[in-house]
Amino acid sequence: xxxxxxxxxxxxxxxxxxxxxxxxxxxxxxxxxxxxxxxxxxxxxxxxxxxxxxxxxxxxxxxxxxxxxxxxxxxxxxxxxxxxxxxxxxxxxxxxxxxxxxxxxxxxxxxxxxxxxxxxxxxxxxxxxxxxxxxxxxxxxxxxxxxxxxxxxxxxxxxxxxxxxxxxxxxxxxxxxxxxxxxxxxxxxxxxxxxxxxxxxxxxxxxxxxxxxxxxxxxxxxxxxxxxxxxxx
Length: 233
Fold this sequence. Notes:
Layout: E1 3-4, H1 15-18, E2 21-26, H2 29-36, H3 38-50, H4 55-58, H5 66-77, E3 82-85, E4 88-90, E5 93-95, E6 101-104, E7 108-110, E8 114-119, E9 122-126, H6 133-147, E10 153-159, H7 161-176, H8 200-208, E11 217-222
Parallel strand pairs: 9-10, 10-11
Antiparallel strand pairs: 1-2, 2-11, 3-8, 4-7, 5-6, 8-9
Helix pairs in contact: 2-3
């Protein structure tokens, strides 16, 4: 697994953006995106620079997608990204030694799945609260698409669970202390205790197994540093 750190280069990712998210990459993904897909990289930097976790939206049950993923997807949609399914077709053509076509093999079709955001050879999935098995599907597909020559790089946005759990507990405790004693509830409104959903460490573990091959992959994780600084109300 070829792990790199080009996101730490201020010429690639502005330091003020870098400080609000956690990152991991393979094959110089951030630098590749900046060089090969500069418009798409500019979109990514814009969203990461402007999006922050707001407690009333974040500390709310939301199922697999939830408001956080919906908001991030909306931010990318405003930049021209769209949900799309990427299918592949492979055709073998037969030629004689004098370069005349003499036949073709049956077309092989590989059906993909709907990715959250796609634009100009870059795929970006927001995996905030899905089952962690989604990561196996995502990473395998990214590698396949890259090896087929149709994908330049891939991005996954997820969460860094333990720092967010500590932050949620602090915010929820502060909020409960503003309520009458008989109205207080110590249970968090969201489940950050489970280890079976998509998280930063789960994505890192899979990538370190070498599943990406040469596909440039950037993993971005929301953490306590992504919080906008306001209390829960």
